[in-house]
Amino acid sequence: LKPTSVSTAPIAGQKPGTSGLRKKVAEFKKENYLNNFVQAAFDAIKASGTDISKGSLVIGGDGRYFNPEAIQILIQMGVANGVRRFWIGQDGLLSTPAVSAIIREGGPRWQKAFGAFILTASHNPGGPTEDFGIKYNCEHGEPAPERMTDEIYANTTTIKSYKICKEFPNIDIGAAGHSKIMSDDGSAEVNIEVIDSTEAHVKLLKSIFDFSAIRGLLDRPDFSMVYDAMHGVNGPYVKKVFCDILGQDLSVTLNCVPKDDFNGGHADPNLTYAKELVAVMGLNRKGEKIDMGGRPIPSFGAAADGDGDRNMILGTQFFVSPSDSLAVIVANADTIPFFRTQGGLKGVARSMPTSGAVDLVAKDLNYSLFETPTGWKYFGNLMDSKELFDGAEYTPFICGEESFGTGSDHIREKDGLWAVLAWLSILAHANTNSLSDTLVTVEDIVKAHWAKYGRNYYSRWDFENMNATKANAMMDKMRAETDANTGKTVGKYSIEKSDDFVYVDPVDGSVAKKQGMRFLMTDGSRIIFRLSGTAGSGATVRMYIEQYEPTKIDMVASEALADLIRVALDLSDLKGFLGTEEPTVIT
Ligand code: VG1
Ligand code: CO
């Protein structure tokens, strides 16, 4: 267990983005690249007052290329830095929500975990020529807050050496079990437990939902579903829940075997990348119906991303936008036992670019609503706050983002499987209460929701792999023009306010600036521009468009939004800066 100190020098560009550090595998494999970052993280964890020799450290990932090597390096560096207990997901696999659940749970033989390293670049492609990533989660299972990621970054710019136990044996992570490694003189020991990847998370989900009601729905002869894990980490979780527990056959599962390159695919659950599922559900990449030649179409379709925290929900030839999905789940939260038994939902939060559909529900049902910057790390403080809710010990919370992320306070990450089970609960409930024998569908539920609340037409355009200098120049120009743009009339819209979104955390007062250029129109429509903080290389420009219609709910989204999209492209001079107006992905 004797640590060696290896001298090193700072490596540029190790600033964690929206969700951890993501770079090409080749970059991560460069000498000291991973080691520097991990040492910087351990130093920041210790500086935050955590005694890492006391609790346990969880390590797992989405199974992408370079995961196994990275896990051994993390163990060797963890031991050298004083960690004495580890929990490692079997085969190195742990979904992001599962990690959060494990940290929160603690183990019977183990002291509670103080944190976790998650080895994932989430929805970014994997494989030798693609992306790798790493992020740190803290003691409540939440992603490291900005003050910590800032400190990690600062440490990477001054690092001189890192600690590693080079002689520490390679740990076999292929089988569940316990290993104890003693120091030569017998004075110290390290305990490593390789754990079943699904157990803690699935146990938690079982305590949240009414599984027998869901099974009642799944067993209906007129109901069928497909869950596409896109060869990410979610496959084993899908099999466990739907086949082992809910008794469905394997036809429910699609691409449920994890692969280190996601089988060459892009494990991002949207209409463009979840091609196979989208076709099975009778849609094209624009969300339009395709001719299925009479072939049967499942009633329900779902997809997950590489690390299992995202979800896409589809009905038969029907796409549910993530912002609408959030609003529908919030509106029906009392169908989920977890909320019903805790005295009902109280808090709702969405990221700024997410549509205001959920705001209408929160207002109607008297839930507190919060608007945060993009990224799940801003939700944790709200969920854990007692002050915001008159000292209440516990506040049931639902959060969501337009980027196919939904979840609740059962953990501190978004949770793809949770969202799917939430939808199935809503469907089960609607069908149990229905007077007719005909199946109440996903489409029925969403349309009834629009009829009640109106519809927030919404679209996000992504321009991937853009020139970073030009993308920044475009943002700077809009930033410089906020005053000039405020009050201006553009097409049939009037800009009530243009600004760069600033968030002041209502709990600790911390301020997050430069979170997105906004054009807020007098009729409530919005245009937003942001640069992605998860791109492994180059720049990704995101353009978000939203327009509310109280009664006209049957338009095609692209047509309803056409005028506003034109205005957005002109206001930003997108073509002038980026040389194109053709997005890579529309969601
Ligand atoms: C994107 C999404 C954001 C999400 C983040 C992490 O960030 O827009 O909503 O929280 O990815 O998701 P950005 O900065 O690229 O827009 V995951 O599933 O990739 O960890
Ligand atoms: Co993800």
From TrEMBL:
Its cofactor is Mg(2+). The keyword NAD does not apply. The keyword Isomerase applies. Keywords: Isomerase, Magnesium, Metal-binding, Nucleotidyltransferase, Phosphoprotein, Transferase. GO terms for molecular function: magnesium ion binding; phosphoglucomutase activity; UTP:glucose-1-phosphate uridylyltransferase activity. GO terms for cellular component: cytosol. Residues 14-162, 200-314, 324-439 form the Alpha-D-phosphohexomutase alpha/beta/alpha domain. It comes from the Eukaryota. It catalyses: alpha-D-glucose 1-phosphate = alpha-D-glucose 6-phosphate. Belongs to the UDPGP type 1 family. Belongs to the phosphohexose mutase family. This is UDP-Glucose-Pyrophosphorylase/Phosphoglucomutase. It comes from Phaeodactylum tricornutum (strain CCAP 1055/1). The lineage of its organism: Eukaryota, Sar, Stramenopiles, Ochrophyta, Bacillariophyta.
